[in-house]
Structure formats: structure tokens, C-alpha cells
Design brief:
It is an enzyme of class 5 (isomerase). By secondary structure, this protein is an alpha/beta fold. It has 31 helices and 27 strands. The chain has four domains: 166 residues, Alpha-Beta Barrel (TIM Barrel); 133 residues, Maltooligosyl trehalose synthase, domain 2 (2-Layer Sandwich); 160 residues, no CATH class; 154 residues, Golgi alpha-mannosidase II (Immunoglobulin-like, Sandwich).
Length: 874
């Protein structure tokens, strides 16, 4: 069953399933058809998001358990709603309460779950043979042992356990011979004495895991992680038995109708995403054959990349739409000004692509060297099997492979035993061509000559029949295709987007480096393709993982309409606003410039610079963002080796702004100039999300203005009391206070969703037809029709003119709808076959007469966007 509209809810101990149930009536009144829940399976104690699963077979008691989930489903069903569940097949939390992981640590390769996790039991380091490398210690192993951070302990539930920083780890059977009483056994292994320390060390050495300093993870890890998070271990759901164990609860809930659809987290992390999607679809069909399965996948699509249709899923979770609608709002002529201004400010003339490749190089050399080395070893063994390739060294293979990894332009390829499809072949052809350039080598150089060999081994040709060669080719392909996704995500979203910031509204999940804008015709073409291929795909403009809120991006997008003034203003502040700290580092111009963008973009609507508490709260939020941004950039400081002096300099720069009234006033003035234009952009993207093909997805609370920053800021508590009050008191479009408090946006969402409910077939199956616009401001209007049978929906939004439109500003008294004096003769051109005598204005909830073409000033009477509906008879 395809949802009509979803609302994403973040569950945790502070907002449980019972709390979600308490809001069912609100979401029903808003017009939502399905609540889309964050993971509900049992997670690590204290989890704030649910992605750190420790038990796939149980609903988390911290959320209320399965009874609470059933009660929520029943309450939703009573309102004509359903549930969509986010599931996490790719990984589980590394935690003592994870019974599968505990068993692996206790029994090693003999564990029943030794194959559940992606563990290399025969790594290059012979000391790790049959062991799991656990980089969990705060310091080097020897220092922790000497200081007593490692101990033998005993508890009633587990018996003898080893403890590191108070976290328990199992003792393998047969490795500890108790000497007398428990007290005596513990005393014999007391690290405070040399003999006890030696016995404890010997005991630790005998385990199926090796405790190590956390800094050893990049070089020595021998199991697949989620990205580079050593608290999350990769799960091998490609194994049918493991797939069944991971999905038993979910499939039971789906069979009973408790859950009606699934969202798959990080599908690109799996060994075989397409095979997984097929297996999941078959399993869902088997337990509920009367309903077509609804499955969406979290998949980041690169520019011009298309989700494989062979997966037979409803579509993505919406990052592609978020990127497209965001790019649409940016004026293309701003790119030159912004890029040149950034280069002048920072002195960095490298293109975004070159910087992106530099970030990827850092990732493979400093963050994923163990994964790269494991792939090189596999390729070396493969080379030794063939006389034609036996001469290649590990060094040459590493050089060639590293160039391919740096150049790879998408998250991953999907080659299988048959090789690559046409889309993958094109991607890999580009990657290998760019790798050759990066190597700067000529024929005769081993790395150069290795590239075509690697191309064949890594999916370019079908797998051979010879068992030994086939097994190594399968392993090499799997390792390669599971390495490129974390490499892509960490290099772009979590590195480059914190380094390169001409305009931060385009540094978002799903965006391409350096891509500022999207032509309206291309936006509509992509929407038509989605309607044809993936009409059930989610359409998101905010998520629990976004870098900045949808209305932060909308506000910054409006700055592109006068990019020169914007850049001149912020570059002057960057230059002139300094902190006198003799002998101390000053923040880099890039870091200051990006901070200033964040302050302007995220400044809450209506916040006065004289509101000391409000400003302090805001500065505190921005300060948390700033620290994370600096460390993610990995230039002057990072998570591995924080430069606290530089971080203090940046914090002092921010605090000096907060402590200087003139600077706060200047910021507030810039916010006032962009607040109204940003609101119009925000309403435009909201209307588009609800009217183009796809399923609109509302992230909790974002029916009001969203000026959040990266997590955890974007997961703050939702003020449902205010939202309920706003829904109960729908405003007029000219109500100034409705613009400042966000009720105008909420009203737009509610009216769009009400219309979707009344015209479900039009939205589910209606084709999209771009419309011609004529007149003096034709370049500033996007218009299209949705058609289904006799039903028509006309949608009109303004583009790249919000700074000049009369509109709502950040202060009362500024609501003046744009009229004929502004729009002049600009009009929507309708074919005779689509021109009725009368239509219904959805936003004004009133009939309107149509005589000929449609003047834009008649469409945008009070609302700055328009949606009209009619039936075309005859």
C-alpha cells in the first residue's frame, strides 16, 4: 500500500511510542496517511535514534515495547492511518547487551554467530588470527593495563568477565582456571601487582578479541563497520539464514498489518543491495500476498544517477528530491560571483571536484587504510593465480586501486556474477579514465598497466568458473563495492561540505560538489521521470540527517538573487570582525565565512538582537554546530586529534559577535533583508513537495519554520502544543503573525494534504505537464499541470525574484501581496483543452473564474504560491 503522505517521527526514551500515539489525532487532522517511524527494534541503552540495534527480534522496551507499538498501530488505524517502519539491516551495535556480538567475542570463529558479522578471521596480522580487533581503550593497551583500567570481575548474570573502562567483555571457555573462591581468583589477576598484571595480560591474550587503543581502528580493524564508527558492526544479511533472523520481527509485524511499509537504512552498505531488495520483497509478499509491498530505500543518487529499476522498490527516501528542489531555488547567475568570491577570500583556487578528490584521498589513507589494505591483499592473491598477473606487487596494486577509489564518482557500483549493467559500465569507465589521469603515468608503469586488469576483476567481466579464482573475485568485488559507499559519504557530506562553502545551502546530503542551481525545465523533467518510474518515492525537504533545516536553505537561496551584495557584506564581516588574541591563532577566513552564513541562515524568525536569553540560546546552538563543523572539516582540528587552541579561537570569534551589540544588529539587519524572501522560498518548496509526483514526507515539526542545524540540533523536541493551536486557528495569508510564527506554512501543508486526500488518484497517477509562461517576468515563474482523467491541478511558484517581490518580512507590518504592478503582463499559457471556465483555488478555498490565459497577479493574490484545481469536461 503506497502512502498518501508520511510524517517522520524520531523515537527515543524522551518521545516513546505512547507519545507518538498521543499525536495521532493531530497528524490525522493535518492530513497525514502514515506515520514513518525511526527504528523501533531494541537499541543500545540510552540510544537517541535507534540505529544502534542490539536485538532485531524485539521492540525496544525503552520505547514501550511491542504492546505500545500495537497500541499505536490501532490508534492510527482508527484514524484511517498506517505505519511505515525504518529498519537497519546493515549493522548492529557493538555492545555487551547484543547477545549475538557477545557470543562472537566469547567463542570466536566457533560461535554460532561468527558469520553474522563481517569479520575477517584470517587478517594479515598473525596475532589477530581468529580474533576480533576491539579498538575501545582510551589509551595504549600497555598504559591501560598498568593503570588498572583493565580488570577481571565477576557478576551474578555473566560470571567472570573482563572489564575495560567498566565495560564488560566475555571470558572464553577454558581460558580461566578459577583458583579457589571468586575473591581469590580476582586477587590473582589484580593488575596492581606485577604478578597479577602478568596473569591478567595472559588471560586477555587468550581471548577471541584483542583490546586496543581506539586510535588503532583505521589501521588494524578487521571487521566491517558502519562508515568508520567502531560502535557499529556490519551484518551479513546476504546470508539467507542471517536475513531471516534479522527480519523475523519485521515480517511478523508486516504479516499482521501492524506495519504497512518499510524504509531500508543505508542499502548501499549491503553486499548485494539488489538481491536484498528482491529477497525482502519476496518475503513480504509471502506473508501478505494480498498487498503489494511498499519499500523505499535510503540511497544517495549522484547527478544523473538513476535508482536501479530492477530492485523493484517504490523509490528512495527523498534526498534526491531535496537536492533538486533546493537547487531550483538558487539563481544560476550567482555561481560566478560566489565561486570567485570564495577563491579570493580563501586563496584556494582548486575546483570543488579537485577538493572532493583530495578529501577522498585523505579518507582512504587515514580513515579506511585497513579496509583498503584488505582489498589489496585479496587482489594480490588473485594476481598470483594467473601467470599474466603474478608479477604485480602489492605496492603497484595499491597505487592503482587508490586512484580508482579517489576517482569513483558515485556511492557504488552494483556489479554481480554477470558483470556490470550499462549504467555501471558508464560510471566505471569514467572512474578508470579519471584514475589514469590521477596516476599521471604512462604505459609501462605497473600501476597504469594494472588499471584494465582491476577493471576486469572489479566487475568489468563476468565471474569465471574456476572455483579458486571465482571465490577471490567475489571477495574482491564485495570488498570494493562495500568500501566506496562510506568513502563517498565521509569524503563529501562529512568533509568537503565543511571545507568548501561558497554558499552553505548547497552543502546538503544528496547534493553534488559545486552544483549551485537546477534549470526549471530540468527540475520538471526529473519530476516527470519520477512519476513514470517511482511514483511511490518519498519527497523530503528535511530529515533527521540533514545538515541544515529546509528554511535555512531557503533563506540562503534567496541571497543568490543579489549575490554580489551578499558576498560583499559577509566578506567585509569576515575581514573586519576579529578578536584580539595576541600570540594565538585566528580562525581561518573560510571558517569565519561559513560561521557567518550559519548565523544569518539559522537566525530564528522574530529573534531580537536585544533578547539576551534568546541570543544566548541561539549562540549556544551555533557553537555546538561550529565545533562539529571544524572537526568534520579535518583541516585545523579533527575528532582524532583535536586542536583545542584553534577551536578556542573559533569559539572566541563567535562569542565576540554575541558580545558586540553592533555586530548582532548587523546580523539581524541582514536576516531582516532575507527573512521574507526565504519564507517565500520555503512556501514554494513546500508546495512543490506536495504536488509533484511522489509521496510528500514531513519531518516532525517541519510544518512550521525549520531553522535547525545538523544533528543533534535537528532532533530537538517538537512543540506539539503550538502546532495544535496553529492547526486549530488557520490564518489568512496576509496575517503578519502567521508568517512570523510559522502558521502560514502549516496552513499550506494542511490545505495541500486535504486536497491530496480528496483527489488521491490525481496525485498518485496524474501525469505532469510543464506549462509555458509569457510576459515580462516569465523567467520568474514555474508552472505545471497534473492531469488524471478529467481532473487538473495547476501549480505556480515564483523563482529567483523573492527579494524584489512585495512579501512578508521578519517584522510586523510588511505583508503586501504582489499584484499587477509587479507581475505586469506575466501569465500562464493554457491550451484550449486545459482551459476551463472556472476553477477552485485550493489555498483560498474559493472558486475563481478563468477567461483565457491566467495572469500571474490573479493567481498570486495573497499567497505567494498558487494551486488551482478543476475538472476538464468534454
Amino acid at each position: 500500500m503506497t502512502p498518501r503522505a508520511t510524517a517522520r517521527l524520531q523515537l527515543h526514551a524522551g518521545f516513546t511510542l505512547a507519545d507518538a500515539q498521543a499525536q495521532v489525532d493531530y497528524y490525522a487532522a493535518l492530513g497525514i496517511s502514515h506515520l514513518y517511524l525511526s527504528p523501533v527494534t531494541r537499541a543500545r541503552p540510552g540510544s537517541t535514534h535507534g540505529y544502534d540495534v542490539i536485538d532485531h527480534g524485539a521492540v525496544d522496551p525503552a520505547l514501550g515495547g511491542e504492546a505500545a507499538l500495537r497500541a499505536l498501530a490501532q490508534a492510527a488505524r482508527a484514524q484511517g492511518m498506517g505505519l511505515v517502519l525504518d529498519i537497519v539491516p546493515n549493522h548492529m551495535a557493538v555492545h555487551a547487551d547484543n547477545a549475538w556480538w557477545w557470543d562472537v567475542l566469547q567463542h570466536g570463529p566457533a560461535s554460532a554467530h561468527a558469520g553474522t558479522f563481517d569479520i575477517d578471521w584470517r587478517p594479515a596480522d598473525p596475532d589477530l588470527a581468529g580474533k576480533v580487533h576491539l579498538p575501545v581503550l582510551g589509551e595504549a593497551y600497555g598504559a591501560c593495563l598498568a593503570r588498572g583500567d583493565l580488570t577481571l570481575a565477576h557478576d551474578d548474570a555473566r560470571g567472570y568477565v573482563l572489564r575495560a573502562h567498566d565495560a564488560p567483555y566475555p571470558v572464553a571457555p577454558g581460558t580461566l582456571a578459577p583458583a579457589g573462591t571468586v575473591t581469590e581468583t580476582l586477587a590473582r589477576h589484580d593488575p596492581s601487582s606485577p604478578c597479577g598484571r602478568a596473569r591478567l595480560h595472559a588471560l586477555l591474550q587468550a581471548q577471541h578479541y584483542r583490546l586496543a587503543w581506539w586510535r588503532t581502528a583505521p589501521d588494524q580493524i578487521n571487521w566491517r563497520r558502519f562508515f568508520e564508527i567502531t560502535e557499529l558492526a556490519g551484518v551479513r544479511v546476504e546470508d539467507p539464514a542471517i536475513f531471516d533472523a534479522v527480519h523475523s520481527l519485521v515480517l511478523r509485524l508486516y504479516a499482521e498489518g501492524i506495519v504497512e511499509g518499510l524504509r531500508i537504512d543505508h542499502i548501499d552498505g549491503l553486499a548485494d543491495p539488489g538481491g536484498y531488495a528482491h529477497r525482502l520483497r519476496e518475503a513480504m509478499t509471502r506473508v501478505r500476498p494480498d498487498v503489494p509491498p511498499y519499500i523505499v530505500v535510503e540511497k544517495i543518487l549522484a547527478e544523473d544517477e538513476i535508482l536501479p529499476g530492477t530492485w523493484r522498490v517504490a523509490g528512495t527516501s527523498g534526498y534526491d528530491f531535496m537536492d533538486q528542489v533546493g537547487a531550483l531555488l538558487h539563481a544560476p547567475q550567482a555561481r560566478t560571483v560566489l565561486d570567485e568570491g570564495w577563491r579570493a577570500l580563501t586563496g584556494d583556487a582548486r575546483s570543488p571536484r579537485v577538493q572532493w578528490q583530495a578529501a577522498r584521498h585523505r579518507m582512504i589513507t587515514r580513515h579506511f587504510p585497513a579496509e583498503r589494505a584488505a582489498l589489496v591483499r585479496c587482489l594480490l592473491r588473485l594476481a598470483r593465480l594467473d601467470p599474466c598477473t603474478r608479477d604485480w606487487s602489492a605496492v603497484a596494486i595499491d597505487r592503482a586501486l587508490s586512484a580508482v577509489l579517489v576517482a569513483f564518482p558515485v556511492y557504488r557500483s552494483y556489479a554481480d556474477a554477470r558483470g556490470r549493467d550499462a549504467a555501471d559500465a558508464a560510471v566505471c569507465q569514467q572512474a578508470w579514465r579519471d584514475a589514469r589521469v590521477l596516476l599521471d603515468s604512462r604505459p609501462g608503469d605497473p600501476a597504469h598497466d594494472l588499471l584494465p586488469v582491476l577493471d576486469a576483476w572489479l566487475g568489468g567481466t563476468p565471474l569465471p568458473s574456476d572455483p579458486a579464482t571465482r571465490a577471490l573475485r567475489e571477495e574482491a568485488l564485495r570488498r570494493f563495492q562495500q568500501l566506496t559507499p562510506p568513502l563517498a559519504a565521509k569524503a563529501l557530506e562529512d568533509t568537503l561540505f565543511y571545507r568548501h562553502g561558497p554558499l552553505l545551502s548547497r552543502n546538503e546530503v544528496g547534493a553534488a560538489p559545486g552544483a549551485l542551481s537546477l534549470p526549471p525545465a530540468r527540475f520538471l523533467a526529473l519530476a516527470r521521470i519520477r512519476g513514470q518510474d517511482f511514483p511511490g518515492a518519498l519527497l523530503a525537504t528535511a530529515t533527521h540527517d540533514h545538515k541544515r533545516g529546509e528554511d535555512v536553505r531557503a533563506r540562503l537561496a534567496s541571497a543568490t538573487e543579489d549575490a554580489a551584495t551578499w558576498h560583499d557584506t559577509l566578506s567585509a564581516w569576515t575581514r573586519d570582525w576579529h578578536v584580539d588574541r595576541p600570540g594565538k591563532d585566528a580562525p581561518l577566513p573560510a571558517d569565519r565565512y561559513m560561521l557567518l552564513q550559519t548565523l544569518v541562515g539559522a537566525w530564528p524568525v522574530g529573534l531580537s538582537p536585544d533578547d539576551a536569553k534568546g541570543v544566548a540560546d541561539f549562540i549556544g546552538r551555533v557553537g555546538a554546530w561550529q565545533l562539529k563543523a571544524l572537526r568534520e572539516a579535518k583541516l585545523r582540528t579533527d575528532w582524532y586529534a583535536p586542536d583545542t587552541d584553534y577551536e578556542a579561537a573559533c569559539a572566541a570569534f563567535l562569542q565576540a559577535i554575541a558580545d558586540t551589540p553592533a555586530r548582532l544588529a548587523a546580523l539581524s539587519g541582514q536576516v531582516d533583508a532575507l527573512a521574507g524572501p526565504g519564507m517565500i522560498n520555503g512556501l514554494s518548496q513546500t508546495l512543490l513537495r506536495h504536488t509533484v509526483p511522489g509521496v510528500p514526507d514531513l519531518y516532525q515539526g517541519r510544518e512550521s519554520w525549520d531553522f535547525s542545524l545538523v544533528d543533534p540540533d535537528n532532533r530537538r523536541e517538537v512543540d506539539y502544543a503550538a502546532l495544535r493551536q496553529g492547526l486549530a486557528n488557520p490564518p489568512a495569508a496576509t496575517d503578519v503573525h502567521a508568517w512570523t510564527d510559522g502558521r502560514i506554512k502549516q496552513a499550506l501543508v494542511q490545505r495541500c494534504l486535504a486536497h491530496r486526500q480528496s483527489q488521491a488518484a490525481l496525485y498518485a497517477a496524474g501525469e505532469l505537464q510543464p506549462l509555458a509562461v509569457a510576459g515580462t517576468r516569465s523567467a520568474n515563474i514555474l508552472a505545471f499541470l497534473r492531469r488524471h482523467g478529467p481532473a487538473r491541478l495547476l501549480v505556480v511558484v515564483p523563482l529567483h525574484c523573492t527579494q524584489t517581490m512585495p512579501c512578508a518580512g521578519a517584522k510586523p507590518g510588511q505583508v503586501t501581496p504582489a499584484g499587477a504592478a509587479y507581475w505586469g503582463d506575466t501569465r500562464i499559457v493554457l491550451d484550449d483543452t486545459d482551459r476551463p471556465a472556472q476553477a477552485w483555488d485550493i489555498l483560498h478555498d474559493a472558486p475563481v473564474a478563468i477567461d483565457g490565459d491566467l495572469p500571474v497577479h490573479a493567481l498570486l493574490r495573497e499567497w505567494p504560491v498558487a494551486a488551482w484545481q478543476w475538472r476538464q469536461e468534454g
